[in-house]
Each structure stands twice: as structure tokens, then as C-alpha cells.
Design a protein that fits this description.
The chain is mainly alpha-helical. The protein has 2 domains: 154 residues, no CATH class; 29 residues, no CATH class. It is 54% helix and 6% strand. It contains 5 helices and 3 strands. The chain has a 3-stranded antiparallel sheet with strand order 2-1-3, covered by helices on one side. Helix 1 runs antiparallel to helix 2, helix 2 packs parallel to helix 5 and helix 3 packs antiparallel against helix 5. 26% of the residues are buried.
Length: 198
């Protein structure tokens, strides 16, 4: 149990830290919306701008990519016996990584924007901080990572599951009765299992 907790805590902390480069990547990819200051308040320069939706889309793409990488790496490096701890860590760590990425991306340029709004003259244009309009994209990282891990595990890509039974002769094998049926006991000599033939 202690080993499972160590695996969970280590991966959760690692994914939370990976939120830092994810947030910086979001800042680099997304276009910050432009505001205009009127009477000490910031208003979108173009109310029909697609920058806000674009920021959500780029954040979703970053989280999906990091989630896919996290799920695949956890599967390849994990090994048997740690699956539950790994899946739980992908969920909690992925969610923490998403929040760290969002927080960092939102903080980037926020102080300058706040100062500009407080002291800027009417008509001043200023770039606003990134933010998420659809907060549901924060769950994309953990969802994608858990799904990636589950698909790789189901396909047994690393060949960690034991080989299937080849159907050796003997009681309880499908070849005991024939036709792919499964028999729980061997047929006695001179009759079949259910006693219809003697």
C-alpha cells in the first residue's frame, strides 16, 4: 500500500509541475485579446473577436497533447501491479496540471493589464490576460491521459498480460465437448457429462 501511495504522490506532483511548461506553451500559442479603456474600465476592442474562443481551443489542444503524452508514458514506465495508483495519479495530477497551466497563463500580463486599466487614459488600447471562457476544458488533460492509459492497457501493447490458455486437453477445457462449448467436468467413459447417453 505504501508503494502505491508513493507512486500516486510522485506522479501527481510531477504532472502538477508539468503544468508550468503547459501554461507557457498556451501563452505562446494563444492570441491575447485587445481591450480599450473607457472611464477606467476595460472593454473588448472588438466584441465579436474570436480571440477568446481561440484561447480556449489552444488550451484544449495543449491539455490534450500533454494528457496523451502523460497517459502513454505512465503506461510504458508503469509495469504491472501499479495500475490503480497510476490511473488515480493521472486523474489528480492531470487536473492539477491543468489548473497550474491555466493559472500561469492567466497571470501572464495580468499585472500590466490591471495597472493600465487603473491609470490609462480613455481610448488607450491594452492587451488583456488569457482566460478560459469554457472552464470544462480543464478536465481534458486527466480525461485524455486516463483514456490513453486504458486503451494501451486494453490492447496490451507492452505484452504485460499473461498469454491466453491454448485449450490443452483435460477437464474444463473447451475442446472437451467440442464446438467451442465450455465443459466443467470430464465426460465419464461410455457416456457424456449430462448422462443422456449411456
Amino acid at each position: 500500500m505504501a508503494r502505491q501511495l508513493r507512486v500516486w504522490a510522485t506522479l501527481t506532483g510531477t504532472l502538477a509541475l508539468v503544468g508550468v511548461p503547459a501554461g507557457l506553451l498556451w501563452v505562446w500559442l494563444a492570441v491575447r485579446p485587445e481591450y480599450i479603456i473607457v472611464s477606467g474600465k476595460a472593454h473588448l476592442l472588438d466584441p465579436e473577436t474570436q480571440d477568446l474562443i481561440g484561447a480556449d481551443g489552444r488550451f484544449a489542444a495543449v491539455c490534450a497533447a500533454f494528457g496523451l503524452a502523460a497517459g502513454a508514458l505512465a503506461y510504458w514506465r508503469g509495469g504491472r501491479g501499479r495500475d490503480v495508483a497510476l490511473v488515480l495519479a493521472l486523474g489528480t495530477g492531470g487536473l492539477l496540471g491543468s489548473f497550474v497551466a491555466w493559472w500561469l497563463g492567466h497571470r501572464f500580463g495580468l499585472a500590466a493589464f490591471t495597472r493600465a486599466v487603473a491609470s490609462g487614459a480613455d481610448g488607450t488600447r491594452v492587451l488583456g490576460p488569457l482566460d478560459l471562457q469554457a472552464k470544462g476544458v480543464l478536465t481534458l488533460w486527466p480525461l485524455v491521459s486516463v483514456i490513453a492509459f486504458g486503451v494501451l492497457e486494453a490492447l496490451d501493447v507492452a505484452r504485460r498480460l499473461p498469454a491466453a490458455d491454448g485449450g490443452q486437453p483435460g477437464a474444463g477445457e473447451a475442446d472437451e465437448v467440442g464446438g467451442g462449448e465450455f465443459d466443467l467436468e470430464a465426460a465419464p467413459p461410455g457416456g457424456d457429462v449430462d448422462g443422456r447417453e449411456r
